Amino acid sequence: MLDVVRRTAESVFIPLTVGGGVRAVADVDTLLRAGADKVGVNTAAIARPELIAEIADRFGRQVLVLSLDVRRTPADSPAAGGSGFEVTTHGGRRGTGLDAVEWARRGAELGAGEILLNSMDADGTKAGFDLALIEAVRAAVDIPVIASGGAGALGDFPPAVAAGADAVLAASVFHFGELTIGDVKDTLRASGHPVR
After folding, report:
1. Assembly state and interactors (predicted)?
2. Which residue, 56, 88, 117, 138, is the most exposed by fewest CB within 10 angstroms?
3. Between β-strands 114-119 and 145-148, what pairing exists: parallel, antiparallel or unpaired?
4. Residues of the chain with pLDDT > 70: what percent?
5. Total tally of structural domains belonging to the chain
């Protein structure tokens, strides 16, 4: 994996975030030395929340992206803690019992610099972003929130930003040539949202 990070870092001229398998401060150090600008953590931080503070203390919070894979649950479910959103792992297949809104708040307090908020329910559906999830997490944290999961049309992006996302992430619509990044930027700009 390090070779892929090195080659990618040499080829792209935008900030590179790398995640997957990050379990310790040493892993972050290795990825940063290989060329990553930011590192994403998920499962290891759930298992050991102090990892967030350790990474932020060593490298600064701007390096750390806390990734949340979230599923909707009934609001009265103990797994969701009342918000109706539960943090999951293993590609959304395993519930953690953690309330997603509370976990985002705690992650920010511990030192996460950004939240990557992936709606596992919306992911791949092309039915639009989970606006209620974005709004709930935005209300709980004052760090950047990147919304992911559900993008299918140009009209899906402005509502996600209006709901509180600082950035929006999409994959398949670009991979399969259904949309272009330029078209998304133009749509956001036309909706009055700042675009870089």
Report:
1. Heterodimer of HisH and HisF.
2. 56
3. parallel
4. 96
5. 1
Question: Which residue in the block uniquely carries the two structure tokens 């009342």?
Answer: 82
In a domain, 100, yes or no: yes
132 neighbors 152 (Cβ within 8 angstroms)? no
Nearest-angstrom CA–CA distance, 31 and 25: 10
Residue 32 lies in a domain: no
Please state the rounded mean pLDDT for residues 108-119. Answer: 99
Query: What Cα–Cα distance (Å) separates residue 188 from each residue in 36, 54, 184?
Result: 28, 36, 6
Q: What is the CATH number of the domain that holds 113?
A: 3.20.20.70
Query: Is residue 24 included in any domain, yes or no?
Result: no
* Average pLDDT value over all residues in the chain: 95
**HEC readout, 119-141:** ECCCCCCCCCCCHHHHHHHHHHC
- The reported pTM is 0.94
196 domain residue, yes or no: no
Share of the chain above pLDDT 90, in %: 91
Distance CA(158)–CA(3), nearest Å, equals 36
